[in-house]
Design brief:
It contains twelve helices and 19 strands. It is of the alpha/beta class. The strands form three sheets. The protein has a 14-stranded parallel sheet with strand order 1-2-3-5-7-9-11-13-14-15-16-17-18-19. It is globular, with a radius of gyration of 26 Å. InterPro entries: At1g61320/At1g61330-like (IPR053772), F-box-like_dom_sf (IPR036047), F-box_dom (IPR001810), LRR_At1g61320_AtMIF1 (IPR055357), LRR_dom_sf (IPR032675). Pfam families: F-box (PF00646), LRR_At1g61320_AtMIF1 (PF23622). This is F-box domain-containing protein.
Length: 429
């Protein structure tokens, strides 16, 4: 009988030892958990019941009840009403809203700022019942709030003008990261002035934007995916990382070849590019070490030609990540060693190539063989990733057969040169 009680006694002893810790230590422990995990600690013991309400960590309200706007709003309000902490590391909200949600969202933002939040992430996509509703960010919400703590701001699916963005940059002097995604009403934007701490700027899918000027001397990372815009960089001497789409490539690469020559990391999204004749002359990417290239709906010959040009312009490249989907002419055939390609390309410094979006079709296999020959030393690592590039790919291509892709990748291995390490990336299933 006594032996049966030993685990229970040990558990109670451990519980009493934890409860004996100072409250600030317990709060620190809880603050390292996400919101739902922190709330679950309330059942540990009586002294832990309300401990989570003092958390200074992360508040993440993400799609608790999809398509149920009011329930999500009630959930956020209930948590904020009981919170007793004086600070927050991160405040994140990501779910659909209705046209009537603006007032309560303003209260949430003020709550976060009053808690001296460091990272504020807001994504208010519209619900099906209010497809035209978007939360409008105004300067009013930032008045009478502490402004010295915010270092990271992500805004997605909101309505906001360039004037408000510029006000934010002036108001939050310590801001280091600014992400704007699907921000409507953003027509002109000037990133300048006293933003001396701004390190990372990402602007994506802001369809109304047609003028952008960036004058921020400490920016090291820049991303732009959207329509063609006027101007762009005025002064970004420390830029070493960039991510751009095909519109930027066509219209701007020749104007900013000096900046590109200093890049160490570059991500190019050239999906749906249907006319390679418009590819501009590439600058020398003489410091580039990492290159990711997204490509779709074109021929493998076009892709090889593009890779040859990019790799030839990047003498110090160490890691190359091509992401391919919907290669034209794909079909199933037996795997055989292909004939030598007319696009001869070898690279002296390249160490790793990671082929993403591999589905095991004939053209995928041909591309994998071609990439294995790029290592001029005969030594390197070729990684094949058979998983969909994104959840959207899985949805659009219900026939995506991961098992088949893995099987075809395994058949390739015997044809790969001995010095090349061939890796099939594990799947999540």
């Amino acid at each position: 009988m006594d032996s049966d009680l030993r685990p229970l006694k040990k558990c109670r002893w451990l519980e009493s030892r934890i409860d004996a810790l100072p409250e600030d230590v317990l709060i620190s422990i809880v603050s390292h958990l996400n919101l739902k995990e922190a709330a679950k600690t309330s059942v540990i013991s009586r002294s832990w019941r309300y401990l989570w309400t003092h958390t200074t960590g992360v508040f993440d309200f993400v799609d608790s009840i999809p398509k149920h706007t009011q329930q999500n709003i009630d959930w956020v309000n209930q948590v904020l009403n009981v919170h007793k902490g004086s600070t927050l590391d991160e405040f994140k909200v990501s779910f659909g809203i209705s046209a009537e949600s603006s007032e309560v969202i303003n209260k949430w933002i003020k709550f976060a700022l009053q808690r001296r939040v460091k990272r504020l992430l807001l994504d208010f996509r519209c619900t099906e019942s209010s497809a035209s509703a978007k939360f409008s960010v105004t300067t009013h919400v930032f008045t009478n709030c502490p402004l010295g703590s915010l270092t990271c701001l992500h805004l997605k699916n909101v309505d906001m003008t360039g004037t408000v963005v510029e006000f934010i940059l002036l108001s939050f002097p310590l801001l280091q990261v600014l992400h704007l995604n699907s921000v409507s009403s953003l027509v002109r934007l000037k990133i300048a002035g006293p933003s001396r701490y701004l390190r990372c700027l990402k602007i994506k899918h802001c369809s109304s934007l047609h003028s952008l000027e960036v004058h921020a001397v400490n920016i090291v990372s820049f991303a732009y995916h959207g329509p063609t815009v006027k101007k762009f960089f005025k002064k970004v001497p420390r830029l070493v990382e960039a991510s751009v789409n095909k519109d930027f490539m066509i219209e701007n690469i020749d104007k900013f070849s000096g900046y590109f020559s200093r890049l160490e990391s570059l991500k190019l999204d050239l999906q749906d590019w249907d006319d390679m004749m418009f590819l501009p002359e590439l600058p020398k990417l003489k410091k580039l070490k990492y290159l990711k290239l997204s490509w779709s709906e074109n021929t493998i010959e076009d892709f090889m030609w593009l890779c040859t040009r990019l790799l030839g312009a990047s003498p110090l490249l160490q890691r190359f990540v091509p992401k391919v989907s919907d290669i034209l002419g794909n079909e199933d055939k037996d795997i055989i060693m292909p004939q030598e390609s007319i696009f001869f390309c070898q690279h002296k410094r390249l160490k790793v190539i990671e082929l993403r979006g591999f589905r095991g079709y004939t053209k995928d296999v041909e591309l994998a063989f071609w990439l294995s020959a790029v290592f001029s030393s005969g030594v390197g690592t070729l990684v094949v990733d058979p998983c969909p590039i994104s959840p959207l790919d899985q949805h659009q291509h219900e026939e995506w057969d991961i098992e088949k892709a893995v099987s075809r990748a395994q058949c390739i291995q015997k044809f790969i040169p001995v010095g090349i390490k061939f890796v099939i990336k594990p799947t999540s299933s």
